C-alpha cells in the first residue's frame, strides 16, 4: 500500500483556527494603538500652539490674543488668535471638537481625547499642558485644573 504524504483535514483546521485566534488578538491591540496615536496627535497639535500663540501675540499692535468664549467644536470667534491665519487657525484644523477661550492677555484650548472622551488635553498661555476637564473659566482664559 502506498502512503500519501501530507496533512490531514483535522490538522489543517487546527492550524487555521490558531491563525484566526492570533489575528483577532493582533487586531484588538491595533485598535488600542490607533487610539493612543490619535491622543498623541491631539497633544502634539495643542502643545505646538503655545509657541505659535506667543509669536502671534508679539506681532499684534497692541499685543492681544483677542476675546473669544466658544463652545466645543466652535473656535470661530472673529478677530481672535483662533481665526487668524497667523494665529492658531491651521493648528486647530487637525483637532476634533476643540474648546477655545481667550481674553486680551490669556488664552486656552482643550480637546477631548480619542481613547477617553471624558478626558481633555488642555494648553494655555501660562504653560499649562495637561489632561483633565474642559476649559471652563472663560473669564480668565486659562485651563481649569482638575482637583485631586
3D structure, described in words:
- This protein is rod-shaped.
- β3 and β4 (120-124) form a beta hairpin.
- The model has no long low-confidence stretch (mean pLDDT 83).
- It has two helices and five strands; from the N terminus they run αβαββββ.
- The protein has one domain (9-132).
- It is α+β, with helices and mostly antiparallel strands and 148 residues long.
How many alpha or pi helices?
A: 2
Helix-residue proportion: 25-40%
- Tertiary shape: rod-shaped
In percent terms, what proportion of residues is strand?
15-25%
Low-confidence segments, given as residue ranges, are none
Radius of gyration: 24 Å
| Span between termini | 79 Å
Secondary-structure element series: HEHEEEE
- Number of domain units: 1
> Could you give the count of β-strands?
5
Report the sheet with the most strands, covering strand number, pairing sense and barrel closure. Answer: 5 strands, antiparallel
Q: Find the structural class using helix and strand composition.
A: alpha+beta
Question: What is the overall pLDDT average?
Answer: 83
Biggest sheet, strands in spatial order? 1-2-3-4-5
What can be said about this structure in brief?
With 148 residues, the protein is α+β, with helices and mostly antiparallel strands. It has helices at residues 9-59, 89-92, and strands spanning 68-69, 99-103, 106-112, 120-124, 129-132. The model has no long low-confidence stretch (mean pLDDT 83).
